[in-house]
Amino acid sequence: MNKDIDEHGLPRAPMARLVAIMARLRDPEGGCPWDIEQTYASIAPYTIEEAYEVADAIERSAFGELRGELGDLLLQVVYHARMAEEDGLFDFDAVAGDVAEKMIRRHPHVFGDESRDKSAEQQVQDWEKIKAAERAGAGPAGVLDGVALGLPALLRALKLQKRAARVGFDWTDRRDVLAKIVEEAHELAEVSEGTDPDRIEDEFGDLLFVMVNLGRHLGVDPEAALRRTNAKFTRRFAAIEAALEAEGRTPSDASLAEMDALWHAAKARERG
Predict the structure, then answer these.
(1) What family is it from (predicted)?
(2) What class, spelled out in words, does domain 14-105 have in CATH?
(3) Which of 62, 112, 163, 267 could disulfide-pair with 57, CB 3.0 to 4.6 Å?
């Protein structure tokens, strides 16, 4: 009896086991019908969702959940790699090997002879230089090429702005960014009086884009800031519901003025 193989004929070593499970699920003869039908495109939304669930667990310091969420995210990588192997493109080992070599290449101060005596900021700058050299080696490309279209819009805006800033296309004074916000807000106010939905959406997008720019100049991650505000809104609205429930009511039974007063009361309690 092979101690390295279980009763299902699967390896016991965790990573090999997961890869083998995915191969079994995708087996056209004896696999799972749902898994067999999936494609890169159909699985991609789950991949994004799992990444956000990892971020959510970290945001809530729910470290008891983090292990499971990381496993779910790893499964997504294994899933895509398995489909690529079936298509004769690459397999999971190739994915793991590529990223391992990338980490070695991009950390010459750890795996090479460069000095480790540098700040975290300098290390980030060196990382970006290495990435730029890698892109240059791949052939001619525009400054903004390679910023994934599938990224969440706020994150993609931030990455686009950082790329442009590297070549000097950036404000040097945050006051200029604030002035631009005022300008864009006025433009949005003007078009909102009209009935052209495309112009309204366009100006609204411009305002969001420059808000991301302000966050970058302030050292604020716009995605993290909005998640924080979402959590704050959820928490305070829950306090409204709890206060009304204590009176045998629901938000639909209360006036806006009542809910606003409860909101401010919740806000005051949070601030101590």
Answers:
(1) Belongs to the nucleoside triphosphate pyrophosphohydrolase family.
(2) mainly alpha
(3) 62
